[in-house]
Design goal:
Elements: H1 4-26, H2 31-50, H3 52-62, H4 68-91, H5 96-120, H6 131-134, H7 141-167, H8 172-203, H9 209-252, H10 254-266, H11 279-296, H12 303-317, H13 320-339, H14 342-350, H15 375-387
Length: about 400
């Protein structure tokens, strides 16, 4: 057995730890973040110490046969305590610190007991994979094995019930994380149960060592995978939700940017498109481009057209937000047309004024419209442009009236 699965599992766990390390350095006093990093670090250490090549190296370098066993058991015990502390930190409450201290002290006593029992016992024959069953009847070594297995089974059982019970009371990423964490702890219970059964069989004269050498490692590996994913899901879920929301908003603003595209290109108002950027960065880029265009069009925005369009749509829909969006869509579309109209530009340059019923480019066409639309309003304007692009000439101009911004 080359321990490849152990080393791969350890690498994945410690890679997650490296990702979280900068946050831990910035927030050293955050107990919740500390518990997460402890779970990741100790879980990886369990796999590292449990790999047969590592077991052999530790025993050889130390000169103590089977020294790797109590070290591995201590790491497993610490991992159990860290998992339970993480659950306690997640749940919160008025007695969090006291509960954490109790779990920490209890499992510190278990680690101390493992060390003392190993020192009192005698395990001269190196066993890299089946020490639990091989020394199941050896004084002190057998008690050490039972102590760590019972402590492990207790911790994962409590973690399973706590996580799954709490998962029913929450929603979203936290619920998914708790469910996965509970499932991982349940697999951990399978690990210690299989080893205890194998040890019990050894006491009765049977050889069920395959439970400890095949079934238990598989259960431990699956449990560690589920646990790590469960720990990371609540951390990643908010960011994924934010990216999904940003992606939807980015796509939603597409119709509005397309109306402004010619202006953005001609006037070089658009920043370089970001490459390999997050959805939030791309959304900011699109919003910035739109605001740059609206700032350039400020002098071309027709307040008269805005008021008439808003009144007409409000009377038809009784929806103020829809009416405001339709009015903005109308004046933006008309402002883009006016800004790019060569005839008006030539007339203005010649000093001859604008054609009847129009305003000259570069000069205000009426009272200022006020602040540019906010992010939510931009989305509603884009929705109007996507469903029915407004035609400013149909904006319900009273008969016989000539207004700036109409032809």
């Amino acid at each position: 057995m080359n321990g490849l699965i152990n080393y791969v599992s350890c690498g994945v766990l410690w890679l997650c730890l490296v990702v979280k390390a900068p946050d831990l350095l910035r927030h050293r006093r955050d107990p919740y973040l500390g518990a997460i990093c402890a779970v990741l670090g100790l879980a990886g250490l369990c796999f590292l110490l449990g790999a047969p090549p590592t077991v052999g190296a530790v025993n050889r370098l130390s000169g103590v046969p089977n020294l790797a066993a109590p070290l591995t058991y201590a790491a497993i015990t610490g991992y159990c305590a860290a998992s339970q502390v993480l659950i306690v930190r997640w749940r919160g409450g008025p007695r969090v610190d006291r509960t954490v201290r109790r779990w920490t002290l209890a499992y510190a006593a278990v680690v101390l007991g493992i060390g003392v029992l190993f020192a009192l016992g005698d395990a001269p024959v190196e066993r890299r994979t089946d020490l639990d069953t091989y020394y199941a009847t050896t004084p002190f070594i057998a008690q050490m094995i039972v102590l760590y297995l019972v402590a492990h089974l207790t911790a994962v059982t409590v973690t399973t019930f706590s996580a799954l019970r709490w998962a029913r009371r929450v929603r979203g990423g936290l619920r998914a994380g708790l469910t996965l964490l509970g499932a991982g702890a349940l697999c951990g219970a399978g690990y210690s149960t299989a080893k205890l059964v194998a040890v019990g069989a050894r006491w009765s004269g049977r050889d069920w060592s395959a439970l400890g050498t095949a079934v238990s490692p598989a259960a431990a590996g699956l449990g560690a995978l589920l646990t790590v994913v469960g720990v990371l899901v609540p951390l990643v879920a908010p960011r994924v939700t934010e990216w999904r929301r940003a992606g939807r908003t980015y796509a939603r603003l597409g119709p509005l940017e397309r109306v402004l595209d010619d202006l953005l290109t001609r006037r070089a108002l658009r920043l370089p498109r970001p490459r390999f950027a997050s959805p939030a960065t791309r959304l900011m880029w699109r919003q910035t481009s739109i605001h740059n265009a609206l700032g350039h069009l400020d002098a071309y925005l027709d307040r008269d057209l805005y008021d008439r369009t808003r009144a007409r749509v409000l009377a038809a829909t009784d929806d103020p937000e829809r009416a405001e969006a339709a009015a903005w869509a109308a004046v933006i579309t008309e402002a883009v047309r006016r800004e790019s109209d060569p005839a008006q530009a030539v007339a203005a340059a010649a000093g001859g004024g604008s054609p009847p019923g129009t305003s000259s480019p570069g000069s205000p066409v009426g009272p200022h419209l006020g602040p540019a639309p906010g992010p939510a309003a931009l989305g509603r304007i884009a929705d109007v442009l996507a469903t029915a692009p407004p035609a400013p000439v149909l904006a319900a101009v009273p008969s016989g009236t000539t207004t700036a911004g109409t032809a």
